[in-house]
From TrEMBL:
Record-linked SUPFAM superfamilies: Carbon-nitrogen hydrolase
Gene3D superfamilies documented for this protein: Carbon-nitrogen hydrolase
Name of this chain's protein: CN hydrolase domain-containing protein
Domain (CN hydrolase) ranges: 1-249
Matching Pfam families: CN_hydrolase (PF00795)
UniProt cross-references to InterPro entries, sorted A to Z: C-N_Hydrolase, C-N_Hydrolase_sf, UPF0012_CS
PROSITE patterns noted in UniProt: CN_HYDROLASE (PS50263), UPF0012 (PS01227)
Protein family according to the UniProt entry: Belongs to the carbon-nitrogen hydrolase superfamily. NIT1/NIT2 family.
Length: 267
């Protein structure tokens, strides 16, 4: 299975519409990918909480439509990162997983909001669902799922809450996808957490971060794919980059069979 992590870089001087068009063209160009992954809130600004309300969209809005069109063009499964979703009076940090035909496979509203009473935790309404979906990706039937590979969804700050990832595993996840807008000031936390979540739950983890500086916040970059043994299979630098990684989903079942730690859980 070939993963393409699109570590999008941007600043405050790039209009949302222009960035949407640029990133849609980038997604459409990902020939040969099985799964394309985008970062958290790449269109609306990961730390731009002051403008989220005015930039928010319904799930049939321009960002979702652009991603559906780009997905059909590249013919891969696409994790479209996340967008600011407006649902009535509520705003959500919502991730979309799209099938090769552009149809919606799954929606995940971020459960854990960052900000300690400000920013996202003040503006966004938390999600309440743990989301795992059988995606049409290579390696699915080998894990006992004829419908596809079981993919779990999480977003950025969720990495600090291991109970969510254990819940994803309990629902069958073999691959967990984590879009993020992680700041450079805590880049080492990011590196530690993506390895810890993959290792303790024996999953493949694809974590796609953001590059550049926006809302006066430098981004960490460092998108990574991590194996179920906690080994970093590939890591991006700090600038905009397309990280291409070939992985075998069968390593998850092999790791769990060789070291069946999950079978020893008591709580």
């Amino acid at each position: 299975m070939r993963l393409h992590l699109l570590q999008v870089g941007y600043g405050d001087d790039e209009p949302v519409a222009a960035r949407r068009d640029r990133v849609a063209a980038l997604v459409a160009a990902q020939e040969g990918a099985d799964l394309v992954v985008l970062p958290e809130l790449w269109a609306h600004g990961g730390f731009a909480s002051a403008t989220w309300a005015e930039r928010a969209e319904a799930l049939d809005g321009p960002t979702a439509r652009a991603m559906a069109d780009a997905t059909r063009a590249c013919g891969a499964v696409v994790h479209a990162g996340s967008l600011v979703e407006r649902d009535g009076d509520a705003l959500h940090n919502t991730s979309l997983l799209l099938g090769p035909d552009g149809a919606l496979l799954a929606r995940y509203r971020k459960v854990h909001r960052f900000g300690h009473g400000r920013g996202e935790s003040e503006v966004m309404t938390p999600g309440e669902e743990v989301v795992v979906v059988d995606a049409p990706l290579p390696g699915g039937p080998s894990s006992g799922s004829p419908a596809g590979l079981p993919v779990g969804l999480a977003t950025c700050y969720d990495l600090r809450f291991p109970e969510l990832f254990r819940a994803l595993v309990d629902r069958g996840a073999r691959l967990v996808v984590v879009p993020a807008a992680w700041p450079a000031a805590r880049a080492e936390h990011w590196r530690l957490l993506v390895r810890a979540r993959a290792l303790e739950d024996q999953v493949l983890l694809a974590a796609c971060g953001t590059a550049g500086t926006h809302a006066r916040t430098p981004m960490a970059g460092a998108s990574a794919v991590v194996g179920p043994d906690g080994a970093v299979l590939a890591e991006a630098g700090e600038a905009e980059e397309v990280l291409v990684v070939d992985v075998d989903p069968g390593v998850v079942d092999a790791a769990r069979a060789a070291f069946p730690v999950l079978a020893d859980r008591r709580l």
